[in-house]
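Quick start: what a row looks like.
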Amino acid sequence: MERHGSRVIEPVEFKMADFAWSIVSMGILALIVLIGVLLLWKTLKDRKSGLPVSDERTQQLNGKAAYYAMFMCQYFIIAYLLVNIVGREFFGMPEIEAGYPMIAALLVSSVSFIVLRWYFDRKEVP
């Protein structure tokens, strides 16, 4: 802290985490927009060529992948809660705020659905 006359000038603290988080946020936003544009483009292309948007097999694969992804997300949330409770009660760890676990749960459910959908499509599970 420096003193210039009657004013006190405090140093500006730059945190690398704030900078990295803003870049990651912009990357996530760009990825979401890109995926949306690609899905819209594919849907319009399929409609133009006369292909159905989804058939019975696709609906079954989506349903099965969503079913398993839901359970994976629930198990992830339960594991997070147990780690948080055990860490706080037995190891004196601070309680984790709610924002990051919500983002992590969203990512786990989304990524698990995408991976399971791809896996079931490759395996040709009805």
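That is the whole record. The longest strand covers residues 2-4. Helices lie at 16-49, 56-91, 99-123.
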